[in-house]
Amino acid sequence: MTQTVTIHGIKACDTMKKARAWLDTHAIPHAFHDYKTQGIDRASLIRWAGQTGWEALLNRAGTTFRKLPDADKANLDQDKAIALMLVQPSMIKRPVLDINGTLLVGFKPDAYAAAFRA
Fold first, then answer.
1. Residues 6+ apart with CB under 8 A from 67
2. pTM, 2 dp
3. Helices 109-117 & 14-25, crossing angle to 10 degrees?
4. Which of 40, 93, 37 is closest to 62 using CA atoms?
5. Alpha-carbon distances, residue 58 vs 69, 79, 98 (angstroms)
6. Residue 60, by phi and psi: left (phi above 0), alpha (psi -120 to 50) or beta?
7. 40 — alpha (psi -120 to 50), left (phi > 0) or beta?
8. What pLDDT score was predicted for residue 1?
9. What's the pLDDT tens digit per position in 12-70?
10. How many CA atoms lie within 13 A of 98 on its CB side?
């Protein structure tokens, strides 16, 4: 079976650059989806949240999230988090690596190595 690999994120993100370099160094062909310029749809975020949990997807440490009014950060649940991520894709943790439908969120070289050994 041919592996389909898509890395989702933002082009200028340093973590994305490291993840893409790791894939290139290990000769893993992949597509890149920049959700800052190409957008992201609600269905994808709902599917991802179903696999990883919305908490893993929402980048609370990032500047975009921290600058939100307290009211927007209060009482977060999946619906509210997805709405925030749709409006500001920068709030999606990066990268989201999709390997034949299996997701890895964030970049950890050991996790990438383990995923491609299988």
1. none
2. 0.91
3. 40
4. 93
5. 16, 12, 17
6. alpha
7. beta
8. 47
9. 999 999 999 999 999 999 999 999 899 999 999 999 999 999 999 999 999 999 999 99
10. 15
CB 42 within 8 A of CB 82: yes
**Cβ contact 107:19 at 8 Å:** yes
Check if 13 is active-site.
Answer: yes
> Structure tokens of 92?
């999606």
Report the alpha-carbon distance of residue 33 to residue 79 in Å, rounded: 23
Concatenating the DSSP letter of every residue in 48-96 gives HHHHH-HHHHB-TTSHHHHTS-HHHHTT--HHHHHHHHHH-GGGB-S-E
pLDDT given for residue 117 in this prediction = 86
**H or E element, residue 47:** helix 42-52
* CB proximity list for 29: less than 8 A, separation 6 or greater: 5
Catalytic residue among 7, 8, 9, 13: 13
